[in-house]
Specification:
Elements (H helix, E strand, L loop, with lengths): L2 H11 L6 H29 L2 H48 L7
Subcellular location: Chromosome, Centromere, Kinetochore; Cytoplasm, Cytoskeleton, Spindle; Nucleus
Main location: nucleus
Family: Belongs to the DASH complex DAD3 family.
Length: 105
């Protein structure tokens, strides 16, 4: 059972044998493995929590998401309305001078 760890440690001890791309791939796999461990830990915590606690958390998240969506819609509406006001004011000046600006509609 000792040879595999020694073989593994000899790979770690001799990084010049790896190309930069290979080292980058190994680093990404290491980060992925760590993220998977964190995800598994979070999922274990969620699975062990009572269902009512999870539902309360989801309801709170839904309320916050709904509020953010409402604020986003209001912001977009405000931006669009402001652009229409700006373009409307500029459009009337440009149509009279440029000619052909408002004759399509």
């Amino acid at each position: 059972m000792d040879p595999p760890p020694r073989a593994h440690s000899s790979l770690i001890a001799s990084p010049p044998e790896l190309t930069p791309l290979e080292q980058e791939v190994l680093d990404e796999y290491e980060r992925l493995a760590e993220n998977m461990r964190k995800l598994a830990s979070h999922l274990d915590n969620l699975a062990s929590a009572p269902a009512s606690e999870i539902l309360d958390g989801l309801r709170e998240l839904e309320r916050k998401t709904s509020l953010v969506f409402t604020l986003l819609k209001a912001s977009v509406y405000s931006i669009v309305l402001q652009q229409e006001i700006d373009w409307g004011g500029q459009g009337h000046h440009g149509e009279g001078e440029g000619g052909g600006g408002g004759h399509h509609g």
